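Allow me, if you will, to draw on your knowledge of protein folds for a short while. I have a record of one protein: its chain in single-letter code and its fold written as discrete structure tokens. Could you please explain, in whatever detail you think fit, how the structure tokens follow from the sequence? The record follows directly beneath this note:
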Amino acid sequence: MPIQHINPSTSAPPRGYSHVVKDGHTVYIAGQVARDRDGKTVGVGDAKAQVEQVFKNLEAALAAAGGNLSHIVKTNVFMTHREDIPAYRETRAKYVSNDNPPVSTLILCSGLADPDFRIEIEAIAVVP
């Protein structure tokens, strides 16, 4: 099966990378940020709104590859504000089962690609 490069129509067009690369059953999702399909940042200064948008983007990326959020096996979460961790965990619980969550790494960093971004999540999934 050839490797597929996928850019969902519901996500802002990427510049210089693909949102999704699917290799067989394995799906690699580029770091998703709080941008809507028009490329506008959602929830400037609002951690909960940004986390919500990021999970919507992850959901769209997985759907484009034939999967859903339950297929995620690994996430890397990058955050710029330690105080946003509770909002992240609360919002994540709406999208990801706490019974069988993926492995995850949370990294606090000084900044992301746009200074308005508070969170970025990249993921690996395995779809049937």
User: Anything to note?
Assistant: The beta strands are 4-6, 20-23, 26-32, 72-79, 103-108, 119-126.
